[in-house]
Structure formats: C-alpha cells, structure tokens
Write a structure and sequence with these properties.
The protein is mostly beta strands. It has one helix and 16 strands. The longest helix has 4 residues, at 97-100.
C-alpha cells in the first residue's frame, strides 16, 4: 500500500488511519527551538464525519487511502436507499439516507453527482454546486410586503424546503446553491 511521508503532508490529502478513510483538512508545520520538527494535523473521518487531531514527527508516514471519485447519475430513491449509476462503467451503487445526508433535497432523477468510493464502496455524494428546482408549494406573497430581504419557506419538487424571496410563486424554477442551501435566482424556462 502506498504511504505519504511528512514532507508530502498538505490540505486535501486522503489517508487511512485504523482502516478508516480520512481527509486532511489542516496541516501546520511547527519547528520548536529544540528537537524534531512537528506536523500538527486535523483529519476528518469521511465515513463518520468526526474530526481527529494528530501530531506527527518529521520522518513519520501515513498509509494512503484507496479513495476514488466517480461521476454517477442519480436513478431513483426507494425508501431510505438512493440508487446511482456510474456514467462510465454503468455499475450501480446504493447509498443509505445517512450517507446522502442533507443532499437528498437537491437530487432529481437523471442528475449527475460525484460519488466518493473507499475500497470500491460508496461513502458520500456531492451534488453539482448549483441546481435548478421547480417550486411545488409556497404561501402567496403579501401585496405591499416589499421590505428588503423578506423571505418565505418554499417546497420544491424533491420535497426539500428553502427560504426564498416573497415574489417566488408555485411553478417557478429557482436556482439553489447546494453548498449553502441558499436561493440564488429565479430561472426563466
């Protein structure tokens, strides 16, 4: 198995500790007056989303994680299972509701997402940065209520709810930023 030496440590590195995949989210180089140089690292567990603090001496090494990122098309949802198909190999992957997490709000059939695989098993998905969704239900905007930044809850075709300006109506297409869950704009058909 490949390993990373401390000289190769950097943010974004995918490593394996105790059989679990981790993402290096921070790595600080510390050179005390005496002794060896130290690398203080924050590592995020890609399965449980926990953060781990570790300190390594110069010359230490960590095992590289067998992680692959693939493009996959969302096919359908069946209770708590989400089914995706790889766009290259046509292999199907099933993810649980816990693995998909809050991203279910953005998933439309046929949408291409990015799936992270660890030892050929899916662990998380990342939808595109922006998605266009149709509004299925919202309260009508109150006439004359035009103060700045007035919002209302809006339910979209996927079942997710987002805060949108009061002028958004049922049937409108809206663009949502999947990284923040915020409304960006209305989209013309």
């Amino acid at each position: 198995m490949a390993t990373y030496n401390t000289s190769e440590f950097r943010k974004g590195l995918k490593v394996q500790i105790d059989g679990d995949p981790y993402l290096m989210i921070q790595c600080d180089f510390v050179k005390p007056g005496k002794g060896q140089a130290l690398y203080k690292c924050k590592l995020k567990n890609l399965i449980r989303n926990t953060v781990l603090d570790r300190t390594y001496k110069s010359g230490d090494s960590i095992e590289a994680a067998d992680i692959e990122e693939i493009e996959a098309q969302f096919l359908y949802r069946q209770q708590d299972q989400f089914v995706f198909m790889c766009t290259e190999s046509y292999e199907q992957y099933e993810l649980t509701a816990d693995q998909v997490d809050e991203n279910w709000k953005y998933l439309k059939e046929g949408m291409v997402c990015s799936i992270l695989l660890f030892n050929n098993r899916p662990i998380t998905i990342t939808p595109p940065n922006h998605v266009v969704l149709r509004v299925e239900y919202c309260e009508p905007g109150v006439r004359g209520n035009t103060a700045t930044n007035v919002t209302k809850p809006v339910r979209v075709e996927t079942g997710g709810e987002f805060q949108c300006p009061v002028f958004v109506e049922i049937g409108d297409l809206i663009r949502i930023d999947t990284r923040t869950g915020e409304y960006i704009e209305r989209v013309k058909e």
